[in-house]
Amino acid sequence: MGDKTLSKELIARLPRYFRYLDDYMNVGIKKVSSGELSHKMNVTASQIRHDLGHFTVSGQQGYGYNVKELYEEIKRVLGLNDEKKVIIVGAGNIGKALISHRMFRNRGFKLIGVFDIAEMAEISGHRVYPISKLPEFVQEYKPDIAILSVPSQEASIVAKELISLGIKALLNFCYVDLDVPDDVIVENVHLRDNLMVLAYKYDNLIKKKKK
């Protein structure tokens, strides 16, 4: 089944399914019910069954879902059977944290290059190249995804260069919205925005408790 048949809401839930199924496999759990997944996902069991009904792996009454088979199916749908090559542009505080993150360890992604204004010492075993080497590197190694963690005022310039080099998928940690062509995909991670939403929800929670 192609991703075109999946709703945006389901696509947004797939990484969570994938993460929980991975956790189950790591502790040796071989089957899981819609009720158990419902508790983890904080959605109804009927929603779980509806979501998973889109896939070729079906649950059995009284047994549940085969964890490994469902994991492999969601991995396929997410496009992780083919390892995605990733570069990080910007080796500041956020960049350093990302370089060390375990998402690059057997999760379908491989960090192949790190870039900053100037060459730096290795970070977690990864050489940091000067950004002037970016065109040569991209041409030779053909990364699939670029992660942006540069200062906001530089984000648009760096994004345009990456796009001109043929990169079509950007994960943007810069506090700016990028203007990109229709054939380029951008996922934004704006931590300050998330904190503002959290602050709003927190204030409303406190107000409810005071009533």
Percent strand equals 15-25%
Strand order of the largest sheet: 5-6-4-3-7-8-9
Largest sheet, in brief, is:
7 strands, mixed
Compute the number of strand runs.
9
By DSSP (H or I, 4+ residues per run), the number of helices equals 8
- Strand and helix order: HEHHEHEHEEEHEHEEH
Radius of gyration: 20 Å
For the record, the count of structural domains works out to: 2
What's the CATH class label of the largest domain? Alpha Beta
Shape descriptor = globular
CATH topology of the largest domain: Rossmann fold
Output mean pLDDT.
91
Oligomer: single chain
Class based on secondary structure composition and strand pairing: alpha/beta
List the SSEs and their pairings:
Layout lengths: L7 H19 L4 E2 L1 H8 L3 H8 L12 E2 H11 L6 E6 L3 H7 L9 E8 L3 E4 L2 E5 L3 H8 L3 E4 L3 H13 L4 E4 L12 E4 L2 H20 L1
Parallel strand pairs: 3-4, 3-7, 4-6, 7-8, 8-9
Antiparallel strand pairs: 1-2, 5-6
Helix pairs in contact: 1-4, 2-3
Can you offer a commentary on this structure?
The structure is a single chain. The protein is α/β, with parallel strands linked by helices. It has two domains: 3-77, Winged helix-like DNA-binding domain superfamily/Winged helix DNA-binding domain (Arc Repressor Mutant, subunit A); 84-193, NAD(P)-binding Rossmann-like Domain (Rossmann fold, 3-Layer(aba) Sandwich), CATH 3.40.50. It has helices spanning 8-26, 34-41, 45-52, 67-77, 93-99, 134-141, 152-164, 191-210; strands at 31-32, 65-66, 84-89, 109-116, 120-123, 126-130, 145-148, 169-172, 185-188. A seven-stranded mixed beta sheet has the order 5-6-4-3-7-8-9, with helices on both faces. The chain has a two-stranded antiparallel sheet with strand order 1-2. Strand 3 (84-89), helix 5 (93-99) and strand 4 (109-116) form a beta-alpha-beta unit. The longest helix has 20 residues, at 191-210.
